[in-house]
Amino acid sequence: MKSLKQVLGGDVRQYGMLLALVLLTLFFHWKSGGLVLTQSNAANILNGNAYILVMAIGMVMVIVIGQIDLSVGSVAAVVGIVVALSIKNWGIPWWLGVLLGLGVGMLIGMWQGFWLAYVGVPGFITTLAGMMLFRGLNQYIGKSVATTVPSEIKYIGGGYLPNIGGLPINGSTVLLGLIALAAVIFGEFRKRAKQARLGSVPAPIWTMVVRIVLVGIVIFGAVWLFGYGEPDRLSFPVTGLILAVLVLIYQFVTQRTPFGRAIYAVGGNRAAAQLSGINTRATYFFTMANMSFLAGVAAVMFVGRAGASSGQDGTMWELDVIASVFIGGAAVSGGIGTVIGSIIGGLVMAVLNNGLQLLGVGADWQKMIKGLVLLAAVAFDIYNKTQGKPSITGMLQRAFKKSPKGVEAK
Amino acid sequence: MPENHEPTEKHHVILEMRSITKEFPGVKALDNVTMQVRSGEIHSICGENGAGKSTLMKVLSGVYPYGTYKGDIYFQGEEMRFHNIKASEAAGIVIIHQELALIPELSITENIFLGNEVKNRFGGIDWTSAHAKAAELMARVGLNADPTTPIKALGVGHQQLVEIARALAKNVKLLVLDEPTSALNEEDSAHLLELMRGLRSKGISCIMISHKLNEVAAISDGITIIRDGLTVESYPTVPGEVDEDRIIRGMVGRPLDNRYPHHEPNHGDVLFEVKNWRVESPIIPGRIICKDSSFFVRKGEIVGFAGLMGAGRTELARSIFGHSYGVFHHGEAYLHGKQLKLSNPKQAIKEGLAYVPEDRKMLGLNLLDDIKRTTVSADIGRICNYNIIDLDQEFIAAEEYRKSLRIKTPTVHEGINKLSGGNQQKVVLAKWLFTQPEVLILDEPTRGIDVGAKYEIYTLIHQMADAGKGVIVISSELPELLGISDRIYTIFEGAITGVLDREDATQENLLRLMTGTAPATVR
């Protein structure tokens, strides 16, 4: 157990959901007779869920500051129609249309951020209003008619990396894998050098080697899965690449920048954050603005995959996004949650959807199972946090002690 | 009273906790703790923060249920096995926690009978008799108010009385009070102690956990001292004749000759000055909470602010700290003779002000965070390169303060919520010292922390002063202000009513100024 801890580093509990994801994948793979981990299905899972995962990145930040955004689906619908119509009707280049759409997303986010941060309307209400407002705006602009998008945008939402090198395995995918592996090795050595510099006792060298080998196996597996088979037709999808880049950026922003710290500080204790010199309003504002911006990115990916923007885009997206964040370990009361966790949470939902479909489970059962999984994941998480306090009264006491504080802090 | 542990007829033992041992993963919080409480006595439990007092009370009340600890509990001669709070309350043991468990929106009556409602024959709530019973209980605790008043309209002192009334409604036989007076002013504290004496005469036993040794000395019939999870001493006493030094010796494990470290002040020029500061209440429009206040702090000077709770000390300090409280009317602040223009705490921090708030859990800390991140949180720009946090520097800074403030923790990666109160307060101090302030404003810096940690904080205040900084200490404890301040301002109803040098200040003349009864000549 101790050596497992040394290899994985830090809190083993954090790996619980990752383990669940792996087991779930393997279970469905086995049950479906090997249909889950195939090149086309894996690419499908990514293409079909990347837009939800992109929004989960923004949503976890919103939830960490103690708010919620119900409007992401409607916002995405507005951005989708703006992108599609501006290119089709005005004849502007596709990239300008995308930029325009993302700009509209950002503006909508600033609108919501304004009401939350500077007027004090709770995020739930602001975005509930936004949900209706922007759904209506989408229908007003698009007249509820499907509008097709050009092939470049289709490539963003459903395209694959080109094959380079002419091997039986997709060259771009291999290259990506090599870059990832190099980054991991570089990071490990840098961490070791830093530990030595700080004079702390570094972990035994074998833990680092084992870690690199483990990550290497995962990367190799992924490269094989996505790249081998039909290298000219299929590869690591473009949506996956966009998602990976965004995850890296936002993981860094939330963990290593003052803005990221501000998000956690405001969500953990707003009054204390304010007295520590944190501009809580700006934190609210930018977090909301960012959420709608990412909803815009998701919209471009989605209309690209669908090939057109239509009036029903984005309905119920908010629920999938919010579920991903909570399955990924975020706290309803704010202050807790990570980008990586939410992505894993989203992938659990994605694999669950996909696996149940492959097993031929009906939509009715799918919904019931997903609901129970959400409930079980959050209950498990809460149980873990209250470990050492096995009594119900102990749990209730904590809940009671917590609630008045939370009320006054707001 | 003789040194006699044998139960007499009049004072038989009502509670006995025998060889209580409670272990958490890796820590023995209680090790073979034994204590006895006799019927109709006030028994005080003393010990430093983290000594195990609260754990012991949680064992007693069933928060840690039977089976999770070793040892036996005998109450009224019978062995008790509490599985939850409800069971201990049914037996007549009620705990009143430091953080009151009242619901602010509900009325006094509703709070008194919460979970214990007065029912009519249809199972609904019988409001008429509930209010009548509540009024009766309120009379017993000396609370003069309308039973339908919502809790949030009451002061902390009165809220505490509601808690006691609630305990009486449950037919309490043993009342446990955890730091009952830590949030109360002198008057309310005195009333509470009087009430405890009254309960004692009615045969209700009390266990009191308190850091205020003068109160412990004034009313205890028995004292148990706990240190590091062990019973140091448990002995009967006579109220009013308690040896405070003996308690301190037992708590810290060594004699503490002086509760306030010696300090030779070395004052320079005026460092920080505030003129005609006027602030209106953010809650009650038109009410002025700082009435044209003016004061100054010299380099190397420790300035105390004395005032009753609600006098406007905290409001003044917070308003100066970047207008973070109230509606600012007018006033000027000068640092090094240069006028400051502050509109938020961030600017105040940048200019060299630091404000350590009185309520560390509400205003001082993010309890979800860890030590290292908290330490740098008020001046994070200092460890950033191109807006990216340098985790090495963060770790180094946190380690430095962990060592210099002697924060008791395995590593700086530990969560804040795992620390004891005194260590949490040290982390708050570390956070503000990290901002390298010129003027350090400390609001109740030693509230709810133990004697040893207090001494360390006083030493730290002296170090800041010796480094030429200005220190402002706001405190409700007059002995503390007299012990560490070079000069003391008094505040009454939002106005500064006087200023006394250390040599001239006594508890009496400070109290007169604080209550507005001083002759005008003192000004």
Structural commentary:
The complex is a heterodimer of chains A (410) and B (523). Chain A is mainly alpha-helical. Chain A folds into 2 domains: 23-159 and 237-409, ABC transporter involved in vitamin B12 uptake, BtuC (Orthogonal Bundle); 160-236, no CATH class. Chain A contains 17 helices and 2 strands. Chain A has helices at 2-8, 16-31, 39-64, 72-90, 94-119, 123-142, 151-158, 171-198, 205-227, 238-256, 258-268, 270-275, 280-306, 317-327, 339-358, 363-385, 392-409; strands at residues 147-148, 308-309. Chain A has a two-stranded antiparallel sheet. The two termini of chain A are 41 Å apart. By secondary structure, chain B is α/β, with parallel strands linked by helices. Chain B has 4 domains: 11-92 and 173-183 and 204-254, P-loop containing nucleotide triphosphate hydrolases (Rossmann fold, 3-Layer(aba) Sandwich), CATH 3.40.50; 99-172, no CATH class; 265-352 and 438-448 and 469-523, Rossmann fold; 358-436, no CATH class. In chain B, strands 6-7-8-3-9-10 form a 6-stranded mixed beta sheet, sandwiched between helices. In chain B, a hairpin with a 2-residue loop joins β4 (70-75) and β5 (78-80). The chains are: A mainly alpha (410), B alpha/beta (523).
Task: Quote the CATH topology of the largest domain in chain B.
Answer: Rossmann fold
**Pair with the biggest interface:** A-B, 37 and 51 residues
Order of helices and strands of chain A: HHHHHHEHHHHHHHEHHHH
Provide the CATH architecture of the largest domain in chain B: 3-Layer(aba) Sandwich
Mean pLDDT of chain B: 85
Sheet having the most strands of chain B = 6 strands, mixed
> Can you give the mean pLDDT of chain A?
86
Low confidence ranges of chain B = 1-9
Could you list the spans of chain A in which at least 5 consecutive residues all have pLDDT below 50?
A: 388-410
Helical percentage of chain A: over 70%
Q: What is the level 1 CATH name of the largest domain in chain A?
A: Mainly Alpha
Instruction: Count all strands of chain A and give the number.
Output: 2
Number of domains of chain A: 2
Q: Give me the Rg of chain A, rounded.
A: 22 Å
The oligomerization state is heterodimer
Gap between N and C termini of chain B, in Å?
48 Å
Helix tally of chain A? 17
Shape of chain B: globular
Strand arrangement across the biggest beta sheet of chain B: 6-7-8-3-9-10
Number of separate structural domains of chain B: 4
